[in-house]
Amino acid sequence: MKSKIFSLAFIAIILSSTGYAQRTLKPHLGVNYTSVNLSGSDADITGKAGVLGGISLAFGKKFYFEPGVQYVAKSTDVVNALNPDLPDGNYDLTGIRVPLALGLNLLGDDKSTITLHGFAGGAAFFVTGDNYDDHGIDINKTNWSVFAGLGVDFWKVFLDASYEWSLTEISGNVETGKTNSVYVTAGFRFSL
Prior knowledge:
Layout: H1 2-20, E1 23-37, E2 44-60, E3 63-79, E4 89-107, E5 114-130, E6 142-154, E7 157-166, E8 178-188, E9 190-191
Antiparallel strand pairs: 1-2, 1-8, 1-9, 2-3, 3-4, 4-5, 5-6, 6-7, 7-8
């Protein structure tokens, strides 16, 4: 019973503290460029542009916390892999990415026309579709990563760029390496 009361009190404190924080809704679209870091391979592994769309909600002013959800499509070409477990071809992934960022507004404030912010955090990528089965590769359905980036706000519009390092291998049965991705997103900011 005490743990339930403690849990409810903790939730109430969090909810009441967020009531005083600035909240900003951020729908966005973007592109990503994903490459694979395959150690010990002479393969020509080329990332291709992919797309994404999502929404996030930022809490805070100078320092902020920003959870989000995105639908992401990634694509990579593999040529001259010389590895029977990793045949040449185009590898596609689609899924839901859930980034959790902590940020700092570096220049400007909520009344400025132009502001600059930096952010970093972790993300989970839940694979919903892939063509790796076509190549005989079992894909890990959940991938974990960390990221860091910079962004600029111009009135109600924002542009963010970040770099993401995967912490998990793409596949559990074939040494396919880890992915590295560049994300560029643009969207609108709506204060709540």
